[in-house]
Amino acid sequence: MALVFLAHIIGIKDELPTFLKMLDNEVKPNLLLLAGLSLIFVFIVGFEVYVIGPDLRTDGLHGFLAPEVLGFSAQPAMLYDVGGKYQPLGVLYLGGNGDRNVLYDPCTKTIRFFPVSSSSVELIDEVQCSSP
Description:
By secondary structure, the protein is an alpha+beta fold. It has helices at 2-10, 18-21, 24-52, 66-70, and strands at residues 55-57, 60-62, 75-81, 89-96, 100-105, 110-115, 119-123. The chain has a 5-stranded antiparallel sheet with strand order 6-5-4-3-7, with no helix packed on it. Strands 1-2 form a two-stranded antiparallel ribbon. β3 and β4 (89-96) form a beta hairpin. The protein is elongated, with a radius of gyration of 24 Å. The chain starts with a helix and ends in a 9-residue tail after the last strand. The mean pLDDT is 81.
């Protein structure tokens, strides 16, 4: 079926072998169904990501499709300063690279960047926010 779809897209359906030409009648409805489902999926994920935005709570990232399908994650973590200058900080760990950890503080709703060399990150179940 995928070869028939590809042949229709490229425009070489006449070059298909006879056993694949039998599927030709099924291609148009299936292609329309596949295109419709793809558009619906893209609309739902786009709406959730761009209109609603990420739902970052103290226990991590929530959402209908974005966390599962797109692989977004925000794991609750405790950030410890190796030098001891700062108190331990409960944050959501968004990721990082060789230089910086990208962290989101759900209590103050701020994004923080900490050098990897001066901090240690420990994953926890949920970030505890102090009462104002």
